From TrEMBL:
A Pfam entry, by short name: Poly_export
GO MF annotation terms: polysaccharide transmembrane transporter activity
Annotated keywords: Signal
PANTHER family the UniProt entry points to: POLYSACCHARIDE EXPORT PROTEIN GFCE-RELATED (PTHR33619:SF3)
Domain Soluble ligand binding: 112-157
Domain Polysaccharide export protein N-terminal: 32-106
Organism classification: Bacteria, Pseudomonadati, Pseudomonadota, Alphaproteobacteria, Sphingomonadales
Superkingdom per UniProt: Bacteria
Protein name in UniProt: Polysaccharide export protein
InterPro entries tied to this protein: Poly_export, Poly_export_N, Soluble_ligand-bd
């Protein structure tokens, strides 16, 4: 009997079993997001002063760019919205408009995904300040067999998921895939 319990615990303690309980995901919700980087699926609103035909809502496409009127594909993935706006302003000023004034803001974030031991797994819209508890609530809560202490999160673009201690301050980022595991006892 003791041998079976030891074998079970050894199987659970392999590589990747480390549980993270500190770091950038555990920042208080009161902290302001100041370094948001655009990704595929984000929606932005471009406003070109006194040029309503060039203003509008655009989406970061699968090739990582935003297709803007006149100037075409503008690199966006991994850049702050202010950087993309400055790039667009410079390109509009290079032979298209005289002294353009450009503003850009994020109007919709790429979704997050949740699967595993939640009532309604799937894809859901992201909102600023989203925590793992909020994400689980969005998926209609835990199933009776859910592990309520550890969640597994794979960041967008990552190849492996990391184990996180589930606390009220655990943040979720746009594009994250959250997996709620099954408890054994």
């Amino acid at each position: 009997m003791l041998l079976c319990v030891c074998a079970l615990l050894a199987a659970c303690g392999g590589k990747g079993a480390e549980v993270i309980s500190t770091g950038d995901r555990y920042v208080s919700n009161r902290a302001v997001v100041t370094d948001y980087r655009l990704g595929i699926g984000d929606k932005v609103r471009l406003t070109v002063f006194r040029e309503p035909d060039m203003s509008g809502d655009f989406t970061v496409g699968p090739n990582g760019t935003v297709a803007l009127p006149l100037i075409g594909a503008t690199p966006a993935v991994g850049r702050r919205v202010e950087e993309v706006a400055a790039d667009a302003q410079a390109r509009y000023g290079d032979g298209y408009l005289r002294s353009p004034q450009v503003n850009m803001e994020v109007t919709g974030f790429r979704p997050f995904f949740i699967l595993g031991e939640v009532t309604a797994p799937g894809q859901f819209p992201y909102s600023i300040g989203l925590t793992a508890f909020n994400a689980i609530a969005t998926a209609q809560g835990f199933t009776p067999r859910a592990d309520r202490y550890i969640v597994h999160i794979r960041r967008e673009g990552a190849t492996v998921e990391e184990n996180y201690q589930l606390t009220p301050d655990l943040r979720v980022y746009p594009g994250d895939t959250i997996r709620v595991g099954e408890r054994f006892f």
